[in-house]
Design goal:
Length: 209
Protein backbone atom coordinates (compact mmCIF):
# COMPACT_ATOMS: atom_id res chain seq x y z
CA UNK A 1 0.00 0.00 0.00
CA UNK A 2 1.64 3.22 -1.09
CA UNK A 3 0.75 6.64 0.23
CA UNK A 4 -1.81 7.21 2.95
CA UNK A 5 -4.46 4.55 3.55
CA UNK A 6 -7.91 5.70 2.43
CA UNK A 7 -10.96 4.73 4.47
CA UNK A 8 -14.27 4.55 2.62
CA UNK A 9 -17.21 4.80 5.00
CA UNK A 10 -19.98 7.13 6.10
CA UNK A 11 -19.09 10.12 8.27
CA UNK A 12 -19.71 8.36 11.58
CA UNK A 13 -18.29 5.74 13.92
CA UNK A 14 -19.78 2.43 12.90
CA UNK A 15 -17.29 -0.40 12.50
CA UNK A 16 -14.67 1.96 11.08
CA UNK A 17 -13.97 3.68 14.41
CA UNK A 18 -11.81 0.78 15.68
CA UNK A 19 -9.71 1.10 12.53
CA UNK A 20 -9.36 4.88 12.95
CA UNK A 21 -8.20 4.33 16.55
CA UNK A 22 -5.65 1.69 15.57
CA UNK A 23 -4.19 3.75 12.72
CA UNK A 24 -3.97 6.75 15.06
CA UNK A 25 -2.21 4.68 17.75
CA UNK A 26 0.24 3.43 15.11
CA UNK A 27 0.93 7.05 14.11
CA UNK A 28 -0.38 6.47 10.58
CA UNK A 29 -2.00 9.38 8.79
CA UNK A 30 -5.04 8.39 6.76
CA UNK A 31 -7.57 9.93 4.44
CA UNK A 32 -11.31 9.42 4.47
CA UNK A 33 -13.80 9.38 1.63
CA UNK A 34 -17.32 9.55 2.95
CA UNK A 35 -20.16 7.61 1.38
CA UNK A 36 -23.38 9.63 1.18
CA UNK A 37 -25.76 7.58 -0.93
CA UNK A 38 -26.64 4.01 -1.89
CA UNK A 39 -25.03 4.72 -5.29
CA UNK A 40 -21.72 5.56 -3.60
CA UNK A 41 -21.80 2.18 -1.87
CA UNK A 42 -22.63 0.29 -5.08
CA UNK A 43 -19.87 2.13 -6.96
CA UNK A 44 -17.37 1.18 -4.24
CA UNK A 45 -18.47 -2.48 -4.30
CA UNK A 46 -17.86 -2.59 -8.04
CA UNK A 47 -14.39 -1.06 -7.73
CA UNK A 48 -12.93 -3.24 -4.98
CA UNK A 49 -9.76 -4.95 -6.15
CA UNK A 50 -6.07 -5.28 -5.28
CA UNK A 51 -5.06 -4.38 -1.74
CA UNK A 52 -8.47 -3.17 -0.70
CA UNK A 53 -9.60 -4.79 2.51
CA UNK A 54 -13.26 -4.89 3.40
CA UNK A 55 -13.64 -6.94 6.60
CA UNK A 56 -13.10 -5.07 9.86
CA UNK A 57 -11.16 -7.87 11.54
CA UNK A 58 -8.93 -8.43 8.50
CA UNK A 59 -8.13 -4.71 8.40
CA UNK A 60 -7.37 -4.56 12.14
CA UNK A 61 -5.05 -7.57 11.90
CA UNK A 62 -3.29 -6.16 8.84
CA UNK A 63 -2.64 -2.80 10.56
CA UNK A 64 -1.59 -4.48 13.82
CA UNK A 65 0.89 -6.75 11.98
CA UNK A 66 2.27 -4.00 9.77
CA UNK A 67 2.86 -1.57 12.64
CA UNK A 68 4.12 -4.02 15.23
CA UNK A 69 1.02 -3.98 17.46
CA UNK A 70 0.37 -7.72 17.20
CA UNK A 71 2.71 -9.37 19.71
CA UNK A 72 6.13 -10.90 19.26
CA UNK A 73 5.12 -14.48 18.40
CA UNK A 74 2.17 -16.73 17.60
CA UNK A 75 1.29 -17.28 21.24
CA UNK A 76 1.01 -13.55 21.92
CA UNK A 77 -1.00 -13.04 18.72
CA UNK A 78 -3.45 -15.74 19.82
CA UNK A 79 -3.91 -14.00 23.19
CA UNK A 80 -4.33 -10.60 21.50
CA UNK A 81 -7.02 -12.12 19.23
CA UNK A 82 -8.73 -13.70 22.23
CA UNK A 83 -8.81 -10.43 24.18
CA UNK A 84 -10.04 -8.46 21.16
CA UNK A 85 -12.76 -10.97 20.32
CA UNK A 86 -13.65 -11.13 24.01
CA UNK A 87 -15.10 -7.62 23.97
CA UNK A 88 -16.60 -7.68 20.47
CA UNK A 89 -20.05 -8.65 21.81
CA UNK A 90 -20.10 -5.63 24.09
CA UNK A 91 -18.75 -3.45 21.30
CA UNK A 92 -21.63 -4.58 19.04
CA UNK A 93 -24.20 -3.64 21.69
CA UNK A 94 -22.65 -0.17 22.02
CA UNK A 95 -22.39 0.17 18.24
CA UNK A 96 -26.09 -0.55 17.72
CA UNK A 97 -27.37 1.69 20.53
CA UNK A 98 -27.96 4.84 18.42
CA UNK A 99 -29.62 2.80 15.63
CA UNK A 100 -32.18 1.01 17.79
CA UNK A 101 -35.87 1.97 17.81
CA UNK A 102 -36.75 4.25 20.73
CA UNK A 103 -38.55 1.49 22.64
CA UNK A 104 -35.47 -0.78 22.57
CA UNK A 105 -32.84 1.77 23.61
CA UNK A 106 -33.48 1.60 27.35
CA UNK A 107 -33.30 -2.19 27.48
CA UNK A 108 -30.10 -2.28 25.44
CA UNK A 109 -28.51 0.42 27.62
CA UNK A 110 -29.38 -1.57 30.77
CA UNK A 111 -27.75 -4.61 29.17
CA UNK A 112 -24.60 -2.61 28.28
CA UNK A 113 -24.32 -1.33 31.88
CA UNK A 114 -24.87 -4.77 33.37
CA UNK A 115 -22.52 -6.69 31.07
CA UNK A 116 -19.70 -4.14 31.14
CA UNK A 117 -19.73 -3.76 34.95
CA UNK A 118 -20.40 -7.39 35.88
CA UNK A 119 -18.85 -9.45 33.12
CA UNK A 120 -16.44 -7.75 30.72
CA UNK A 121 -14.66 -5.12 32.80
CA UNK A 122 -14.02 -7.45 35.77
CA UNK A 123 -12.44 -10.00 33.38
CA UNK A 124 -9.99 -7.45 31.91
CA UNK A 125 -9.26 -5.90 35.31
CA UNK A 126 -8.32 -9.42 36.44
CA UNK A 127 -5.97 -9.91 33.46
CA UNK A 128 -4.10 -6.69 34.28
CA UNK A 129 -3.97 -7.61 37.97
CA UNK A 130 -2.72 -11.14 37.25
CA UNK A 131 0.53 -10.01 35.59
CA UNK A 132 0.86 -6.49 37.03
CA UNK A 133 2.10 -5.10 33.69
CA UNK A 134 1.21 -1.90 31.87
CA UNK A 135 -0.50 -3.54 28.89
CA UNK A 136 -2.67 -6.62 28.30
CA UNK A 137 -0.09 -8.75 26.46
CA UNK A 138 3.71 -8.90 26.69
CA UNK A 139 3.98 -5.58 28.60
CA UNK A 140 3.82 -3.76 25.25
CA UNK A 141 1.07 -1.83 23.49
CA UNK A 142 -0.97 -4.05 21.17
CA UNK A 143 -4.13 -3.76 19.09
CA UNK A 144 -6.03 -5.40 21.99
CA UNK A 145 -5.22 -2.44 24.29
CA UNK A 146 -6.31 0.06 21.65
CA UNK A 147 -9.56 -1.81 20.93
CA UNK A 148 -10.38 -2.09 24.62
CA UNK A 149 -9.58 1.57 25.40
CA UNK A 150 -11.76 2.73 22.49
CA UNK A 151 -14.58 0.65 23.97
CA UNK A 152 -14.00 2.08 27.47
CA UNK A 153 -14.48 5.58 26.08
CA UNK A 154 -17.65 4.57 24.24
CA UNK A 155 -19.17 2.79 27.26
CA UNK A 156 -18.38 5.76 29.51
CA UNK A 157 -20.33 8.04 27.17
CA UNK A 158 -23.40 5.91 27.91
CA UNK A 159 -22.55 5.09 31.54
CA UNK A 160 -20.21 7.76 33.00
CA UNK A 161 -19.35 5.86 36.20
CA UNK A 162 -18.77 2.49 34.48
CA UNK A 163 -15.05 2.42 35.43
CA UNK A 164 -15.49 3.51 39.05
CA UNK A 165 -14.54 0.10 40.44
CA UNK A 166 -11.83 -0.75 37.92
CA UNK A 167 -8.64 1.18 38.78
CA UNK A 168 -6.38 -0.86 36.48
CA UNK A 169 -8.65 -0.35 33.47
CA UNK A 170 -8.79 3.35 34.30
CA UNK A 171 -4.99 3.40 34.43
CA UNK A 172 -4.78 1.58 31.07
CA UNK A 173 -7.13 4.12 29.50
CA UNK A 174 -4.99 6.98 30.83
CA UNK A 175 -1.75 5.31 29.71
CA UNK A 176 -2.98 4.70 26.15
CA UNK A 177 -4.64 8.15 25.97
CA UNK A 178 -1.33 9.80 26.89
CA UNK A 179 0.61 8.19 24.04
CA UNK A 180 1.46 11.15 21.76
CA UNK A 181 -0.26 9.65 18.70
CA UNK A 182 -3.46 8.82 20.63
CA UNK A 183 -3.40 12.13 22.50
CA UNK A 184 -3.48 13.90 19.13
CA UNK A 185 -6.39 11.70 17.99
CA UNK A 186 -8.37 12.59 21.13
CA UNK A 187 -8.09 16.33 20.47
CA UNK A 188 -11.07 18.21 19.02
CA UNK A 189 -10.90 18.47 15.22
CA UNK A 190 -9.26 15.06 14.73
CA UNK A 191 -10.68 12.21 12.62
CA UNK A 192 -12.24 10.64 15.70
CA UNK A 193 -15.99 10.52 15.32
CA UNK A 194 -18.62 11.61 17.87
CA UNK A 195 -21.56 9.51 19.04
CA UNK A 196 -23.95 9.22 16.08
CA UNK A 197 -26.53 12.02 15.93
CA UNK A 198 -29.76 12.17 13.92
CA UNK A 199 -28.03 13.62 10.85
CA UNK A 200 -25.53 10.74 10.79
CA UNK A 201 -28.34 8.17 11.26
CA UNK A 202 -30.20 9.72 8.33
CA UNK A 203 -27.11 9.34 6.10
CA UNK A 204 -26.65 5.68 7.06
CA UNK A 205 -30.31 4.98 6.26
CA UNK A 206 -29.78 6.49 2.80
CA UNK A 207 -26.72 4.33 2.17
CA UNK A 208 -27.70 0.98 3.60
CA UNK A 209 -31.51 0.79 3.23
Amino acid sequence: MSGKPVLYYFDGRGRMESIRWLLAAAGVEFEEKFLKTRDDLEKLRNEIDGMKLVQTRAILNYIATKYNLYGKDMKERAIIDMYTEGVMDLDEMVLYQPYLPKEEKEGNLAKIKDKSRNRYFPAYEKVLKSHGQDYLVGNKLSSADVYLVKLLYHVEELDPSALANFPLLKALRTRVSNLPTVKKFLQPGSQRKPFEDEKCLETTRKIFH
